[in-house]
Design a protein that fits this description.
It is built from 5 helices and 2 strands; from the N terminus they run ααααββα. The protein is mostly helical. The protein has one domain (7-129). The protein has a two-stranded antiparallel sheet.
Length: 141
Amino acid sequence: MNSPSSFTREELLQIARWQSAIITLILLNLLLIVGLVCSLISLGPGHWSAGVEISAVRWILILLNLIAVVFIYRLAKALRQTAWVYALAAFFPCVGLIALLLINHFATRALRRHGVRVGLMGAVKSDLENLPPTVVPPTSS
C-alpha cells in the first residue's frame, strides 16, 4: 500500500466525496432505524409484523446498505486499499462496522495530512477548493 502522503489533488477530492457519501448514508440509516423503532413502539408488541410501512422501511434499509457497500468499495479504492475486502466485510454486521470505522479513519487521516480539515460530515469544502492543482506530499516529521 502506498503512503497516504502520496495522494494527488484528484485522489483527495475522490476520498472526500466518497467519505461524505458514506457519512450521509449512515445518517439516513440512523434516521430510518429511529423511525422504525418509533413505529414499532406505537404499534405495540402484538402488531410488529403487521405494518406495511415497517416492511417498506426494512426494504429501504436494505437498499441503503447495498448502496453503502458500493460507496465503501469506491472509498477503499480511492485510498488504494484492498477494496473487495472492505466491501465483503460490509455484509457482516459487526465486522462491517469495524471495516467502516477503519476506512473512515484512513480517509480522515489522508485528508488531514494534506491540510484538509475534516468535520462531522466529512471534509471542509473550502479546504478542498483551496487545494493546489499539484499536491505536494507533506514532509514526515
